[in-house]
Amino acid sequence: MAPNFIFPQNLNSLEEEDPDYTRLTVQNPSAISSLRSSELEEFVKGVSFDLSDKELFCIEEQEIFDRVYSLVKGFASLTPGCKLNLVESLRSNLSVLLPNVDSLSRLRGSVSSRNGNDSDEQDETSEVCDGSSTLDRVASHRNAFKIYTFFLIHIVLIEESSSSPINNNTKAAASSRKKHLVNSWNWESQRSRILNLIANSLEINLSLLFGSSNPDENYLSFIAKNAFLMFENAALLKDSDTKDALCRVIGTCATKYHYIAQSCASILHLIHKYDFVVIHLADAVAAAEKRYADGSVATSLIREIGRTNPKAYVKDTVGAENIGRFLVELAERLPKLISTNIGLLIPHFGGESYKMRNALVGVLGKLVVKAFNDVEGEVNSKSIRLRTKQAMLEILLERCRDVSAYTRSRVLQVWAELCEEHSVSIGLWNEVAAVAAGRLEDKSSMVRKSALNLLIMMLQHNPFGPQLRTASFEATLEQYKKKLNELGPKSPSRYSSEGVSNGLPSDNDISNMDGEVGDEETEGNSKEEDSLTDSCLPQAADGMVQMDSSVPSFGNLEQTRTLVASLEAGLRFSMCLSATMPTLVQLMASSSATDVENAILLLMRCRQFQIDGSEACLCKMLPLVFSQDKSICEAVENAFITIYIRKNPVETAKNLLDLSINSNIGDLASLEFILGALVSKGDITASMLSALWDLFCFNVSGTTAEQSRGALSVLCMVAKSSPSVLSSHLQDIVDIGFGRWAKVEPLLARTACTALQRLSEEDKEKLLSSNGSRVFGILEGLITGFILPENIWYAAADRAIATIYTIHPTPETIAADLVKRFLSSVFNCHGDGKLQNDMDNGSSSVLTTVQVTKLSRYLFVVSQVAMNQLVYIESCVRKIRKEKAKKEKIVANDLKANANTSDVQKDNGINAELGLAASEDAMLDGLVERAEKEIISGGNTGKNLIGHSGSFLSKLCRNFSLMQKFPELQTSAMLALCRFMIIDADFCESNLQLLFTVVENAPSETVRSNCTIALGDLAVRFPNLLEPWTENMYARLRDPSVCVRKSAVLVLSHLILNDMMKV
User: Fold this and answer.
1) Alpha-carbon distances, residue 201 vs 158, 205, 342, 509, 1031 (angstroms)
2) Got the DSSP string for 448-496?
3) pTM attached to this predicted model
4) What is the DSSP secondary structure assignment for residue 444, as one 8-state letter?
5) What distance lies between CA 1036 and its chain's CA centroid?
6) What is the tens place of the pLDDT at every residue in 281-307?
7) What would the DSSP string read from start to end of 646-672?
8) Which of 210, 298, 921, 952 has the greatest count of CB atoms below 10 A from its CB?
9) How many whole angstroms separate alpha carbon 673 and alpha carbon 684?
């Protein structure tokens, strides 16, 4: 009989001598490395033949044991064929050995029965022999079992260590070797078969081999130690079969054989050290509990984690994060077991490690969802579970005010998960909503993001219905309160009308012990609305809150009372969301892109559920399209498409024109930018444009003049990116835009002027050839006539003058006629000299009401003409320079084609030395300066028409007593003065003192605001003139008017950011 096999510390320890011969060791190892390949193959075949031909426990024979040891030690140097033969021989022998263990029990039973017959003395000798031989056979089986296990596990360790690259230098070699092995004999498959065999060996009745309920410590220590060692290999765990086998090994050792203390220590060590083992170890612990119905391993781990000093996790941040993930994964798999032991972990809420607090919050979330779903059991135990759940929810609410932003963010994410899983009761719904709304103003952006996502999730899964308008809830609630009063006149006062206005019923009034609404009828009304998908539109079927005028009876007082409580909860939720609208507007102006994006998403969800104020707030997102952050721009465009672009072209057209009608100047600029982007992407289709033209031309019944103007406005915005849009309806623009409908909708004429400005060059020529005189006559009449109201005329005249300068071939001629006509209409009763004398004497009797209006309009027109003349000169210069650059490029290309390169370079050098190009540019700059100066200062012959108006305007603005009597005239006069100053430097310098006097002392905040904005333009155009007045410009920040201060902030910030002014 061979000596007992004892697992050594390592493979090489088997070669150590044992003088007492108490354990099996290697006596004559073979030098595998010295054998030739043919000799090695013969050697392996011989070992395989002996293992298959002899008995299963022949492995304990010294000769075979030594040869197998030698092959395992040199396993890395074996050929794939030799490896396969050796592995198959060892594995097949162990797999055959396992069923034979059961035969040992029958053999022992027969020996025991025979030993019980004491009367038969003649068989005593044979019985002793049989008993000793049986014990020897069991010992041989045990030895063989341990030897096969030892060698197979070491083969796995050797092969894995040789397959994995040790360093960067051996990476290529190791990779090629591993690829070769895989192609030859598929090591991954062999590895999983070996480890599954080891796992199966642990699941048989090993007490028959080891003589006790648990195997010896030496065997379990070897198996568990190497299993945990293999867990450190991330590549090995990627194989699902191998991972499952290792999990079975660890779970069986720890649970079945009570190897708990050592296993728990190893598990915690791995979790602290490697993050990739967390999920797999959680699988192992959960599988062990499921297989053996014994959660001792999980309980021991929780107890050990709870026993750890919370301060230890402050320094070990990686370990704290891994432990936290492990707890969450364990709660996902074993919710009931964790719920009974959660008290061991609660002390970590008081620790300083926010990662542990985050993990515990996640654990509580998993437990709330999964640990309390069963309804079976005694009433007492169910009551305990409900109290436990309520305590967990209270902890989650408390953690929303955690000192760490990471924990506050995490707990809000957990609440969102609970809402998604329908684990938040109606009684707790509004409390969670109030907490989330409060966290919108958190100082941390990650908390604000989580709060926004929570509110989005709460809206999506709200139990109150597909539309949450406050008015609908109040009306329905009033009806059911009347019904409640009819059913029970002496009902408690908490359901009186004061409940809505002064204090809505508390969550405890709405919910029972579990926090759920108790009656079936309420569940029937709200169950179908528990989860509303993204496709749920406000026009969906009416929900619980949309009731007929006749209130249905629910049959008893309690059911109606519960419904009233549910409606009150829905009203509170709607009012809570409505109250967040100002905060959401502030978040859209946040510097954090996540704040902006999620605020837009929440507003879109609020609009879907018809929350009060959401539509107006969404319109304020349009200016964000100019953000430099690409993600914000994309978010705005996507939201715009979702809200306003529909599959029905007519519906889309109406959405767009309504938006243009109700938008201010800033929103219109944003809308124009968005439409330009959508046109370039092809999102604005031809059918949508056709629908807009139909609305503009009144081809759709019921179209109003305002809608026609809105449709044309949208078409003008599209025309900025695609001018050809307007070419098919030129006549309609003139006929409708300036026809009788312009009297009904005064702004229609202004929009038509914008459309004429957006025409392409071909369309402009077409318009001039067909309707040129008519169009300009209309524009002149629009400017000089009194058809439009006073408040509309200025905007229309501004656009009309700009249109003349855009499409007329010689706009200065028609502009001069306009100024002369206005001048004669203003001064037709008095000569210019008399009026000038009256102005000098401070007399205002000459200015009647009609004359003040005409004079205000004249000053506006003359200043607007001067400004457009300046712009016209600059555009002409740009065209000249563009044509010049184009000709120079053509000439240069011709010279390169017809002459040598050296000659071209020589000519260019001569031209550069002579300064021909520079002289042409200087001549052009001189002409530009002269043309600009002639606008106001005039030429050699003296001042021109606008120049004389400038002198008059300057004296008019200095007559402060007159200006105070006519504030409308002062507004127009100061605006004209500022425009003249922007055009001419000399005029600006001579009137700067006047401008600052007016901006400081003018009683009208409109005048002060206009002058403040004009100062910004002057600082850009003439920085040297404005530099001495810097302190006066900063003084506008102390203006008593909020409007003026706001304008000053905008102007100064613009100048400072563009380095035009010192701070």
Assistant:
1) 21, 9, 35, 60, 91
2) HHHHHHHHHHHHHT-SS-S---HHHHHHHHHHHHHHHHHH-TT--GGGS
3) 0.77
4) S
5) 41
6) 999 999 999 999 999 999 999 999 999
7) -SSHHHHHHHHHHHHHT--HHHHHHHH
8) 298
9) 13
- The whole-angstrom separation of Cα 253 and Cα 512 is 46
938: phi then psi, degrees, rounded to nearest 5:
85, 180
3-state secondary structure of 4: strand
pLDDT of residue 378: 60
Q: Tell me the residue type at 87.
A: V
Taking a C-beta distance cutoff of 8 angstroms, is the pair 987, 980 a contact? yes
Q: Which residue has the tokens 């009012």?
A: 575
Q: Are 324 and 407 in contact (CB under 8 A)?
A: no
Phi, psi (rounded to 5 degrees) for 4: -70, 140
Give 852-856 contacts, CB < 8 A, sequence gap 24+.
852/966, 852/968, 852/969, 853/790, 854/822, 854/825, 854/826, 855/826, 855/969, 855/972, 856/968, 856/969, 856/971, 856/972, 856/973
Cα–Cα distance, 46 to 943 (Å, whole number):
122
**DSSP assignment of 391-430:** HHHHHHHHHTT-SSHHHHHHHHHHHHHHHHTT-S-HHHHH
* Residues in the chain, pLDDT under 50: 111-129, 165-183, 490-551, 829-833, 835-836, 839-840, 842-847, 849
Write the CA distances from 668 to 294, 536, 661, 759, integer angstroms. Answer: 69, 30, 9, 19
* Integer Cα distance of 952 and 948 in angstroms: 6
Give Cα 935 to chain centroid, integer Å: 54
Residue 172 CA to residue 175 CA, distance in Å, equals 5
What does the block give as tokens for 105? 């029990």
496 to each of 486, 504, 517, 570, how far by Cα in Å? 13, 10, 20, 17
> What pLDDT was estimated at residue 17?
79
In three-state secondary structure terms, 23 is strand
Which tokens go with 974? 């100061």
pLDDT digits (tens, 9 = 90+) for 1005-1033: 999 999 999 999 999 999 999 999 999 99
Element (DSSP H or E) covering residue 95:
helix 80-115
